[in-house]
From TrEMBL:
Lineage top rank: taxon: Bacteria
Name this protein carries in UniProt: Pentapeptide repeat-containing protein
Database matches in SUPFAM superfamilies: Pentapeptide repeat-like
TM spans (from-to): 16-38, 58-79
Cited InterPro entries: 5peptide_repeat
Annotated keywords: Membrane, Transmembrane, Transmembrane helix
Pfam families to which the protein is assigned, alphabetical: Pentapeptide_3
Length: 451
């Protein structure tokens, strides 16, 4: 090919040889002058006729120069030949890899489950050997999992769905094995159990898109995807994300969790979206870390929800969320905005020793069971206007660092603010009867019960 050297990133042969010969001459002349300077050439030496031995030495020098140039030309030519051979080998390897990729994808479309399994393993081996195919292979695997799938009755979580009968149950079972294998493939190449010690099987910088996928007993424990999308995904059985680390954005909006959802100690580096997610059973987010904004607006928690010791970044929103079971936010850390407006707590709600560094908004929130804020700290605004407390409301030892407002709040039982402290001036607060603030220090007040 006329311009092949451009493809390989090389100079043309004429340009390379011209540069090499010129460089050799320049170096020879420079060496001659440097040698003359070091030996101190006489400035006014009389020219003498050359003797035979001098002519022979000069002839040897010329031959050596010619041989050096020839060797340089041979070296340049050999280097170019090697680079061409290497490029040809790389090209052949890429062509072979592309062929294997096409064959693997074709096998995934086969009507027999065993052949589809072979296609998965073939694609996995290809991506392990050729890193530039890893994201592409992951995309193919995710696309396969996004395809429509009906689990057998045994895989459903709802008792009414278990009673449903399918016409071809046995045909679903082999396909289930293929999908479970695909899920294990994702976990195998996204898992890091020891931070800083990544295994050779780990594929870095991988994006996951499982929008609308039906996932069975998904295990993403200790996985490290760059970003992940599970929008409208359906999780049958337990979903394990304990210790997972999401570097970028993660989306679970509209997702349905049929079994327990375990996100304990998970780390969310970017935004985490759970808007409209449905948790039929227990949802565990204990010690989870949210570096970016976290959205649980409209989420439904059918079982207990555990957010104890969770750490939230600048914003977390639970507007309109529904907690049917008990909800625990004990010792949780909240950032600038913690919004629970219109949230409904059906069971006990625990916020003991929680720390709200910024604004905490509970306007219109409904607590059907007991509500416990013992030892909690509010940094700025604590707004409970229009909140309904159906059970006992306990605020013992709470510290209100900013304005506290309970205007229009309704209590089925007398609230308890024993040992609670508030900022001064006290005129900025609105307390429920029969409690009021009495100045205790220069910048603080203590809540007391009026007789």
């Amino acid at each position: 090919m006329k311009d092949a050297h451009k493809t390989l990133g090389l100079w043309s042969i004429r340009r390379a040889l011209t540069f090499a010969f010129t460089a050799a001459v320049v170096l020879l002349v420079a060496a001659w002058f440097l040698l003359s300077l070091l030996l101190g050439s006489p400035p006014h030496a009389e020219p003498k006729p050359l003797e035979t031995k001098d002519l022979l030495e000069l002839l040897k020098l010329v031959f050596a120069l010619v041989a050096g140039v020839g060797a340089l030309v041979a070296l340049v030519t050999a280097y170019r030949r090697q680079r061409v051979d290497e490029a040809a080998g790389e090209r052949a390897e890429r062509v072979q890899a592309h062929v294997e990729y096409g064959q693997g994808v074709e096998l995934l479309g086969h009507d027999k489950a065993a052949v589809r399994l072979g296609g998965l393993y073939s694609l996995e081996r290809l991506a392990q050997d050729h890193p530039y195919y890893r994201q592409t292979v992951i995309d193919v695997v995710c696309s396969y999992l996004r395809m429509p799938f009906r689990a057998t009755p045994a895989e459903h979580d709802d008792q009414s769905e278990q009673a449903e009968q399918f016409d071809d149950r046995t045909a679903q079972e082999p396909e289930l094995q293929v999908r479970l294998t695909a899920q294990r493939l994702l976990k195998r190449h996204l898992t890091v159990t020891e931070p800083g010690n990544e295994p050779s099987t780990f594929w870095d910088g991988i994006d996951i898109d499982l929008t609308g996928a039906h996932l069975i007993h998904l295990d993403f424990t200790d996985c490290r995807p760059a970003s992940a999308t599970f929008t409208n995904a359906h999780f049958s059985g337990e979903a394990k994300f304990r210790g997972a680390r999401f570097i970028g954005q993660v989306r679970f909006d509209g997702a349905q969790f049929g079994g327990d959802a375990r996100f304990g100690e998970a780390q969310f580096g970017g935004s985490a979206r759970f808007e409209g997610a449905q948790f039929r059973r227990e949802a565990r987010f204990a010690k989870a870390q949210f570096a970016g904004p976290a959205g649980f607006e409209g989420a439904q928690f059918g079982g207990d929800a555990r957010f104890g010791e969770a750490q939230f970044g600048e914003y977390v929103g639970f507007e309109g969320a529904q907690f049917s079971g008990n909800a625990s936010f004990s010792e949780a850390q909240f950032g600038v905005y913690a919004v629970f407006e219109g949230t409904q707590f059906g069971g006990e709600a625990r916020f003991g020793k929680a720390h709200f560094r910024g604004s905490a908004r509970f306007e219109g929130t409904r607590f059907s069971g007991d509500t416990r804020f013992e030892g909690a700290q509010f940094g700025e605004y604590a707004v409970f206007d229009g909140t309904q407390f159906g059970g006992h409301a306990v605020f013992n030892g709470v510290k209100f660092g900013g304005d506290a407002r309970f205007g229009g709040a309704h209590f089925e039982h007398d609230p308890d603010f024993d040992g609670a402290m508030a900022s001064y001036p006290i005129e900025n607060h609105v307390w429920p009867s029969p409690w009021r603030a009495q100045r205790d220090t220069a910048d603080g007040a203590q809540l007391t019960r009026e007789n």
